[in-house]
Amino acid sequence: MEGDLQVFSGRGSTALAGGICDALGIPLGQAQVAQFPNRETRVRIEENVRGLDVYVVQSMCAPVNDNLMQLLIMVDALRRSSADRITTVIPYFGYARQEKKTAGREPISAKLVANLIQAAGADRVITMDLHAPAIEGFFDIPVDHLRAAALLVGTVRDMELGPEVVVGSPDAGGVARAEDFSRRLGAQDIFVSFKKRTSPDDVAPLQLVGDVNGRTAILVDDIISTGSSLMAAARSLKDRGAEHVYACAVHPDLTEGAVGALQGSVIEGVLVTDTIPISNSANGSSKIRVCTTAPLFAEAIRRIHNHESVSALFS
Ligand code: R5P
Description:
Layout (H helix, E strand, L loop, with lengths): L4 E5 L4 H11 L6 E5 L5 E5 L7 E5 L6 H17 L4 E6 L18 H12 L3 E5 L14 E4 L2 H10 L6 E5 L5 H11 L4 E10 L2 E8 L6 E9 L3 H12 L4 E9 L5 H6 L5 E5 L6 H4 L4 E4 L2 H12 L10
Parallel strand pairs: 1-4, 4-5, 5-6, 6-7, 8-9, 8-11, 11-12, 12-13, 13-14
Antiparallel strand pairs: 2-3, 9-10
Helix pairs in contact: 1-9, 2-3, 4-5
The structure holds ribose-5-phosphate.
């Protein structure tokens, strides 16, 4: 790797950024990212970045607003330090579930976040499995939108769940994602569990479409937050005769309580990625397995830095 590339990390992605740097064979850039006593974000870039191709890795996970501000302030610091090009690497793009108005007098927060990132001085964005792919269009700078599907499917294949596997979505909005996953896995058909959200942290299953009787069902989603969507769908699957139920999701945006709830649920295993660092309790869970996205992000960075095509990484 050439010497004019540098990767920095906000506090939302320290471990993943370390893995990315290991894969690139470079040390992580030195930066102080802390808080003033009044909790304002304090950043200082501790090495010369003049003329460099710089990447800032920062997920917008909890504490979301602090992590977002760190990202914006790091970009501002790098811009004022004369970095040549600044790419924000946002493994988990927060506020993505607020990408449209669902009622009058609501904001479009995802658009506001995109505006803020550009206004701070970012030249490009690399992200993964946006909840709403249309968010790419909220930016007027290049966005490389990576997908974790190949990684997750490869891991599921290694789990050798048998021939009677059926893949599905816990809601209508995820059908295309489930279809793609099923096709990659070589499974035969899909199921859909329709849900009704009764509150921000609870859902009620409405109907299950598809034949799951006697089969191993894999629920595929982009985000796990409270786990309610997956657990409600899993109960329906069991009621309809599914022999085993597993779940896969890209972003483990786990709320407090989600790990315990998933541990006590009928779901036998939950596969996620490291776009969001998981807590110690999730690390100790016998059901949750994490596969790393570091090599994929590293390869995207390598290709962008070397002006090579990254489109092969989108599939
Ligand atoms: C919603 O449309 C998303 O794709 C996920 O299904 C949702 O964010 C999961 O949230 P929870 O785990 O709280 O049900």
